[in-house]
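Lecture 7, part 2: worked example. A protein chain together with iron/sulfur cluster.
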Amino acid sequence: MEDLIIISNLNDFIFCPVSIYFHKLYGSQDNLLYQSSAQINGTKAHETIDEKKYSTRKSAMMSLDVYSEKYGLCGKIDLYESDKKRLIERKKHVRQIYKGYIFQLYAQYYAMTEMGYEVKELYIRSMDDNKNYKIALPEKDPNMLQKFEHLIEEMRTFNLETFYQTNIEKCKNCIYEDACDRSLNRGE
Ligand code: SF4
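Predicted complex, written out as C-alpha cells:
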C-alpha cells in the first residue's frame, strides 16, 4: 500500500513542501520554540477540540480519526455536527479562505463519506469573529476537485532533493526560516 498522506500536511505542502520536514522534526519539541504567536493561538483554538471539551452534545463529534482508502489520506476531523450533517474546520482567525483550508475539508469529507457518515455541508469557522464560511461540496465544484486531486498526485511524486523554493515572501514568513538551508532569506 502506498504511504498515507496526513490530512494536515495538505496545507503545509501548499505553503512549502520543505516545511513538512521541519514540522515532523520539531513536532514533538517545545512548541514555543518553533511556533509564531499566531500559530500558537491557532493551536489553542484547536486544543478545545482535540481535548473534546467543545461540547457535550451528542450530535457534536470531535477529533474523530478518519481514513480515505480512495485518496490514501488519514487524519482527524475537527468537528462534525451529525444532526445537521455538517463538517466544520475551525480556525483561530480567518482572513482569507486559502486553498489549503478547502482541501483539508475535502479530505475529511471523502474520508467521512467512505467511513459511512453522511456529510451535506462543509464550513470553515473563524473563531475570533464567529464567522462561518460555507464551502461547496467537491462534487459541486469540479475545478477545485481537480486541483485537490492534482495536489494529492503532486505530493505522491514529490522529490525533496530537487525542490527549490522560489518565493522569498514565504521564507520571510516561515517559522522554520532560521533552521532551513533552502531559505531564500539567508543573511537578511
Ligand atoms: S524557509 Fe523557505 S524553503 Fe525553508 S521551509 Fe520555510 S518557506 Fe520553505
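Helices lie at 9-15, 17-26, 31-34, 37-50, 99-114, 142-156, 168-172. Residues 28-40 have pLDDT under 50 and may be disordered. Keep this in mind for problem set question 3.
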